[in-house]
Amino acid sequence: MDDNNNLRDFFISYTGADREWAEWIASTLEEAAYTTVLQAWDFGVGAHFVNEMHTATQYTDRTIGVLSHVYIESEFGQAEWQ
């Protein structure tokens, strides 16, 4: 995801506790012909997590946050939606 050829429709922001919901949202969107960025599917092993999140927000039209108590209290949740 490093150039305009890789633009996607949605970045799904979530915490590990909400991964199943995030995957369900991404699957539902992709079945409806939207493109998504999801950490579990798109961030490579050993990738710089914070950089990947930043890049995802730069190359997607929208961000969806899977809001839960865990997400709100997470270290990165607030940074992602800002």
Explain how this protein is built:
- The chain is of the alpha/beta class and 82 residues long.
- The protein has helices at 19-31, 39-42, 49-58, 69-73, 77-81, and strands spanning 8-13, 36-38, 60-65.
- It has a three-stranded parallel β-sheet, sandwiched between helices.
- It is globular, with a radius of gyration of 12 Å.
Write a concise keyword list for the protein shown above:
82 residues; alpha/beta; three-stranded parallel β-sheet; 45% helix; 18% strand
User: What coarse outline follows from CA principal-axis ratios?
Assistant: globular
Low-confidence stretches: none
* Radius of gyration, in angstroms, nearest whole number: 12 Å
What is the number of strand segments?
A: 3
Strand content: 15-25%
Average pLDDT, rounded to a whole number, is 81
Lay out the secondary structure.
Layout: E1 8-13, H1 19-31, E2 36-38, H2 39-42, H3 49-58, E3 60-65, H4 69-73, H5 77-81
Parallel strand pairs: 1-2, 1-3
Gist of the model:
With 82 residues, the protein is α/β, with parallel strands linked by helices. It has helices at residues 19-31, 39-42, 49-58, 69-73, 77-81, and strands at residues 8-13, 36-38, 60-65.
